[in-house]
Design goal:
Layout: E1 2-7, H1 15-27, E2 33-38, H2 39-42, H3 50-53, H4 61-69, E3 73-79, H5 87-95, H6 98-101, E4 105-111, H7 119-127, E5 135-143, H8 146-149, H9 159-186
Parallel strand pairs: 1-2, 1-3, 3-4, 4-5
Length: about 200
């Protein structure tokens, strides 16, 4: 099984990337391959109709979409900015379709420099899966007080948070195994209904 981990910060060397590499180390206990997409590094254009026609500015999206298609699960990581998910992550979700994410488990993760981090979870649960039909799992992770929580070597300093993260990645892998036939069987069948009601 494969997993894609999306670090949704627009900042260079962000704590979201730190969290992504920490979760990658845990994911490799359950998945054969784990790819990290750093949205700062990718610097994707804002969504426009050119993505549908495959115009030149969107050539970089093709390998990203292929990585997502080959993934059995996805982790979306965002810092909390003004109580919201980042514009880069929302833009990323606008670009995804049912081909990449439908009926695949998605774990939401937020990062906070203090004790916050709840609002982006609610925002992404409400709007993150409408047209791509991703299955956002009930559990989520919030990395609070991040500068004390994770080291620069991607190690978790809090045993309870580490244990919770290990459990959550194990749970995500279980969802990935269980939902694989649903994705396989229902993506083409669901095409007439891909934009919801």
């Amino acid at each position: 099984m494969n997993i894609t981990i999306v670090a949704g910060s627009q900042r260079a060397n962000s704590q979201s990337v730190n969290v992504a590499h920490y979760l990658k180390s845990l994911a490799l206990d359950h998945f054969d391959r784990a790819d990290v997409l750093d949205l700062h590094q990718l610097d994707l254009p804002l969504w426009n109709e050119g993505v549908w026609q495959g115009t030149d500015e969107w050539q970089q999206w093709t390998p990203i979409a292929e990585t997502l298609k080959q993934s059995d699960a996805v982790i979306l990581i965002t810092p909390e900015w003004h109580g919201m998910a980042t514009p880069a992550l929302k833009n990323f979700l606008l670009l995804t379709t049912d081909e990449e994410l439908a009926h695949k488990p998605v774990l939401l993760v937020t990062v906070s420099a203090s004790v916050n981090g709840v609002y982006p979870i609610s925002e992404l649960r409400m709007t993150g899966s409408k047209n791509n039909h991703a299955c956002i799992v009930p559990d989520h992770l919030i990395f609070r007080n991040i500068e004390q929580l994770l080291t620069e070597q991607h190690q978790c300093a809090d045993p309870a948070m580490h244990q919770r993260s290990e459990y959550t990645l194990s749970l995500l892998a279980s969802y990935a195994r269980a939902l694989a036939p649903v994705h396989r069987d229902m993506v083409s069948v669901g095409k007439p209904f891909r934009y919801g009601m």
